[in-house]
User: Fold this.
Amino acid sequence: MIIGTLVQGPATSAFADSSASPVIATSGPGPYYLALGDSVPVWNGSDSYPYQIASHYGPAIPGLQVVDMACSGETTSSMIANSLCPSGPTQSQLQEAVAFLQAHQGSVAFITVDIGGNDVVNCADATGIDVACVFQGLTTMQTNMDTILSDIRQAAGPSVPIYGMNYFNPFLGDWVAGGAGQSFAVQSVPELTLFNQVLGGVYGAQHIPVADVATAFSETDLGDLVSSPWGQVPVAVDKACTLLDITCTVGQLEGFGDDPDPAGATVIAGAFEQTMGSMPTTIPTTTTTTTTTTTTTTSPPATTTTSAASPGTTGPGSTSTPTNRVASAPSQSLAFTGPGKGLSMVGIVGLALVLLGSSLLALVAVPRTRTQCVPSSMGPPGNGGGRFED
Assistant:
């Protein structure tokens, strides 16, 4: 993890040894910005999006410090237990975050979360797309996200703003390959759109606003062509080749990378800032039913609204161990919770599986050799090796 201090200017980073304690060492009393998730918040070191967000809000929040617990390659399961970047005795990014929040009550300005992509990205390989793997991944992601977000909210309290994000498309660079590669890139667009809808539903059920990174990357714009180093390409392809750490070469499949480059990190930061507004804050909202009226404190409205579901998870004060709280939904079943949400999610997942199945032909036709990237040298040790680094 990275601890960064910001005072009216760009954030700086330094590594903190937290192996002796689940509570992160910090310099000064805060306020703190807690960044959680996979590699995107750490991939570009002090140029990663949390530091750019902190720089943006620094003048309004003097002394703001970035506490970056994100971990490259993290899934929703490993975030709960057996983190890929164990930072303390709990070996859980979630439990480290809960401990930090409990130890710094009243000192946390806001929290960002991006997690979930690694739950499904490895379902695609040189042999095609494993539909059962995608089905299981979406189910597990939804269940684990309910746990993660509920625990963070309970530990942070009702007044600390929490923001999530959806995902960009790391496969669009294949468009410039032509042929089957281009077909796969086109087919990946509705698939990722549906994935983001499932993810947005989870955030919406917890009243957490979502930074619309997908729209910021114009991921669905395959109709408008622009001039680029790769010729006339769709806007979505140009942005993917320009803003991600992929290598685009005309006539070849992309050199795969699934993180933003520094310019992409700036775009992600901008998407968060658009969602967060002039100052991260929570606002009271009133929900009226036919029989009662209740007032709850939530963050500003999410980009996508869904019906709220009652959390079906155990809070951070549970006596259960983190391992026991990791979802492992059985194959061919959906562990969705909440009245009405299950039916809508079944429809989304069903359509997603049809689309994923259709892309199998393109994947089988072209063997896919992917290169591994390593994060910026500014990132914390051990944060390399993840695939879906959003």
Notes: The first strand starts at residue 2 and ends at 5.
